[in-house]
Amino acid sequence: MTTRSAFVWALETVSGDTTDPLTVDDELLARARIHAREVPIDVDWDALEWAVSARAKRWAGRCQWDRRREVATIVLSRQAYETYDWETFAAVVRHELIHAWEFQRYGKSGHGTRFREKAAALEAPRHCPSFSTPRYRLWCSNDDCTWGARRHRASPPVTTPERYQCGGCGADYVVEHVASGRRWTCSSGYGGVKAALGEEW
Predict the structure, then answer these.
(1) Judging by beta carbons within 10 Å of its beta carbon (0-12, 13-18, 19+), is residue 156 exposed, middle or buried?
(2) CA separation (Å) from 138 to 97, 154, 175, 179, 200?
């Protein structure tokens, strides 16, 4: 199958027609489906569906499992497609294909040893990179530790960091409000920064 005929095939399976103007979602799904067929993974294509999310801003792709129908659905973010270069987005497709493969074969999926081994073989990331700027950053207070995390919401590790430890070495960590650069290490510090920033929060 040539690249053009593969694209037409993928487009027809997405929209059922090749005469209508091509939308970003049509293009995204067509390219993702073409790439997926080139990946050496034993996925049941008849039990795999594709979708696009126009709202997703924190994740680039997800694989959902319908246990009743035994069908996996790969949902890809339009914003990620428009943000990433193709190589990065194709790696997201491979990542989600591994989840689909695990769901179809084992009925569950995660990021454990089996996933890591398959991801290494397919040159897929274990975790997909974030494409939006986080609202908060966390990093370890231990200068010898390189652990860090990103958060988009004021979850408990952000609002009450004194109750949690660094994910790398177990030391205390610092939280930063990215837009302002203000930092805190406890719940009262979080409250103080939030109050000080007011509408800029």
Answers:
(1) exposed
(2) 30, 12, 5, 14, 20
Six token digits for residue 91: 């790696």
Q: Which two tokens stand for residue 144?
A: 């010898």
Q: Report all structural domains of the chain as residue ranges with CATH numbers, in order of start.
A: 3-122 (3.30.2010), 136-200 (no CATH)
Spatial separation of the C-alpha atoms in residues 168 and 149, rounded to whole Å: 10
More confident residue, 200 or 27: 27
Give the pLDDT confidence of 127-141 residue by residue, as tens digits. 877 667 788 999 899
Please report, to the nearest 10 degrees, the dihedral formed by the alpha carbons of residues 116, 167, 181, 179 taken in order: 40
Contact 68, 137 (CB under 8 A): no
For residue 149, the cross-strand partners are: 138
Closest CA to 96 of 139, 52, 146: 52
